[in-house]
Amino acid sequence: MPYTPHTAEDIREMLDVLGLETVDDLFRSLPAAVRPPAGLDLPPSLSEEEVWRVMSNLAALNAGQDELVSFLGGGVYDAAIPAAVDAVVSRSEFLTAYTPYQPEVSQGTLQVIYEWQTFVTRLTGLPVANASMYDGSTALVEGVRMALGRTGRDAVVLPAALNPRHRRVLETNLASEGVTILTAPAAAAGTTDPAALRALLDGRVGAVVIQNPNHLGLIEPVDALAAAARDAGALVVASVNPVSLSLLKTPAEYGAAVATGEAQPFGVPCGWGGPLLGFLSCSDELKRLIPGRVVGRTVDHDGREGYVLTLQTREQHIRREKATSNICSNQGLNMARGTVYLALLGAEGLRELGEANRVRCEALRAILRGIAGVELPFDGPVFNEFVVRLPRPAREFRAFAREQGLLAGIPLDGFAGCGPGDLLVAVTERRTADEIERYGSALRDFLEP
Amino acid sequence: MSHERQGATPARWGADLQTSLFAKGRAGRRATTMPAWRGDDVDTALPAGALRAAPADLPSLSELEVLRHYTLLSNLNHHIERGLYPLGSCTMKYNPRLNEKVAALSGFASLHPEQDEADLQGLLCALKLLQDALCEITGFAACSLQPAAGAHGEYLGMQVIRARHLDRGESGRTEVLIPDSAHGTNPASVVLTGMKPRTLKSGPDGRLDLDALRAAVGPQTAGIMITNPNTLGLFESDIVEVARIVHAAGGLLYMDGANLNAILGKAKPALMGFDVVHLNLHKTFSTPHGGGGPGAGPICVTEELARFLPAPVIREDGGVYRLDACAGECRPSVHAYLGNTGVCLRALTYILRLGGDGLTRVSERAVLNANYLRKRLEGLLTVEHADGTLHEFIATGADWKERFGVRTLDVAKRMLDYGIHAPTIYFPLIVDEAIMIEPTETESKETLDRFVEVVAAIRAEAERDPDLLRSAPHTTPVSRLDEAAAARRPDLSWLGPCNCG
């Protein structure tokens, strides 16, 4: 049988040592009532080749972003993955290691985590980061918890143009903790209205979430929003696309206490939305409230530099019911992907990545502006994503474009005042000028058959 | 300090620690280039107020420099393909390479979560196959693949239980009973759902104490969380009676499936009377631990609870798969999308490879290995609650401490010198100087025999020269690290050479 080394002789010898007749004698403590009478009703074992055939046939029934030209975003982006990233994370030394509880034999994993923490702090400007969260949504939940824990308040303000999938996860989590959720409305420009935010803030609000760019792709008036929060004694919890931090103002620069986000574009396949790579960083004052694993640098007994899991007294395995989070394992290997990815990019590569996203995004916006009947309803600055308003249902265009091998965007009907014609369109560094031109042609053909 | 040890000094292979990435490279060097842009440049500079003041300060390295850095770092890790990893409760079995090859298929890995069902038919079929297989293995009716880890599954499971009570107007059910042998995630997960954990003391045999349970249940009881087999490796033989007591009091039963590797094909959580179970795909179903994730913690539930699982729900109709958004229903969501799909595909690959009989053999051999090892260690280590242990067992280092003056930590550190990863130590909390050993089914008899020899050798060392253990490990890239200093003066990101020494 696959993956186990036992020969019939091994089993006989081992049972003899135990003084047992059969392997089933080892299961005597299981009462008859809990035992399935006929074992498991699953197909019989297959050879590796047969399993490969089944699974690769299933994969072939899908059409992904290698086959189709993707303009989908909304938190997960079709970003290029350098071959060296896959090479490093497929090493058994990283792939099959456990959480680094024995630091003497885990310095590789520990140093990678420390480097990831360093990368995150350099992107966000905040001095402390952890070893990753499940995804951007759960990172945001934990960030809000930290801010409420620090301020001792029980209400949070979310922006109307917050990623709706993240909002749902926040609602599930915060409602059962008795947290009041308020919503700051979007102004006509599609960004959060600072005056409306001020009007919502009272002594109960401990956390103000800013998503930048927001779910309409727009760059928020972060300074004005953060100032409003500060004046009311609330902490800012930022949710950011980390690729945009190549160019955009850092959460630290606008005074966020916590910065979170989804780092999937840093070397992690889209994978239908998982496994992803949530990140979380915070100010020094909040470091003892940070959830999950944190690695610190120290020395060994011989004075050599080394790394350990630290600040563990925050964590569930020590604090149990008094822990502020229940997170145990995180996204370790995807964090290693992110670390290698950023090491490959370097300072110049990161800046070029940001520019490449922005230039392509602006090129598509320019093309769409020139198509009769098509509107770009929000004229504020964007990074790599924007809303286009069509005179006909966006879902119909999505289906039309799919016929031509294009994934045209995410329909926004019902979201933050958007209508049936509104589509969220993302453009990454993978898109070529030709593909962007094809998008424009497809839309023209759709509107003027 | 390592960054100063980069000079022309000869060193044994692996003896040199790695210089920080942030001390390497040189401005202007590079590993990546962006695809050329052949389109028009549209002049739309971002407003200055939106921009960061200075570029992010990242090191600049060549591709080979990056690969060398991480290859040398990787050499500092213990891992499954290097040697035995007998961490109790972690199920460190072999991670088949086929799983990795399948998950990397472009037809899976390149899918965007906002694509239409028509582009996802193979994926949805695969996920439905996995859900059905997990339901068959656990005996339940419905499955959610959304939780990204075991603790995440616990959290969702508690949300489901809470939602069901609220749906029946029983908002007073807020107390969840948890045995004192439980993982720390259990009480932490309960608290986060707004409920209250209450600790149940284990009986003298290490199992649940029925009298304590009867005394604890009442109209406040939301449910009970039980790891079965428990963290001592023991099956809760009274589980059917436990379920009767809890259900009679109006509560529900949650099973922490961390130890499912012991009972595949041998017992089903649904037959035990549980209402919800989470499975750790990264334990029982062979997906890699990755240095701390990503794992996956799907939950399976009874028919009654199916309507409280996250949406969308995968449905199949005449060979066509669709995602049902369950419009109008109020369902929880704990992840932006439907969880760690890539991990789920690895688990399905494993299940197909082994088949139903193969999975049953997995548990038989995991339990055989653990029992053989326990028996062979008799006379060397004292095993607590030895009667009826399944896939793992708990030894205590208390007598070594008394006789030789070495702690469990010292024994664990010395094992590292023999190329074996230390077992789980100081857990469960109810055993003094606990050493928790789980060999898994993928280890051979020879490897187990060698482990016994190693324990015997360490015992002889403890008798002869306890300082050798107290100062261990001696052959690893670093010796024991100053954890107290790390916590006292946290140095959590690289700001320059270490001044921690």
Task: Explain how this protein is built.
The complex is a heterodimer of chains A (449) and B (501). Chain A is α/β, with parallel strands linked by helices and 449 residues long. Chain A has 13 helices and 14 strands. Chain A folds into two domains: 69-78 and 346-447, Aspartate Aminotransferase, domain 1 (Alpha-Beta Complex); 83-341, Type I PLP-dependent aspartate aminotransferase-like (Major domain) (Aspartate Aminotransferase, domain 2, 3-Layer(aba) Sandwich), CATH 3.40.640.10. A seven-stranded mixed sheet of chain A has the order 2-8-7-6-5-3-4, with helices on both faces. A three-stranded antiparallel sheet of chain A has the order 11-14-13, covered by helices on one side. In chain A, α3 (83-89) packs antiparallel against α11 (332-369) and α11 crosses α13 (433-447). With 501 residues, chain B is an alpha/beta fold. Chain B is globular. Chain B folds into two domains: 98-353, 3-Layer(aba) Sandwich (Aspartate Aminotransferase, domain 2); 356-478, Alpha-Beta Complex (Aspartate Aminotransferase, domain 1), CATH 3.90.1150. Chain B contains 15 helices and 13 strands. In chain B, the strands form three sheets. In chain B, strands 1-7-6-5-4-2-3 form a seven-stranded mixed sheet, with helices on both faces. In chain B, strands 10-11-13-12 form a four-stranded antiparallel sheet. A two-stranded antiparallel sheet of chain B has the order 8-9. Chain B has helices at 63-74, 97-103, 106-109, 121-138, 150-167, 185-192, 210-216, 239-248, 269-272, 341-376, 398-404, 408-417, 445-464, 466-470, 483-488, and strands at 142-144, 175-179, 196-200, 221-227, 252-257, 276-279, 299-301, 313-317, 320-324, 382-384, 393-396, 424-425, 434-437. Chains A and B meet through α1, α2, α3, α4 and α5 of A and α1, α2, α3, α4 and α5 of B.
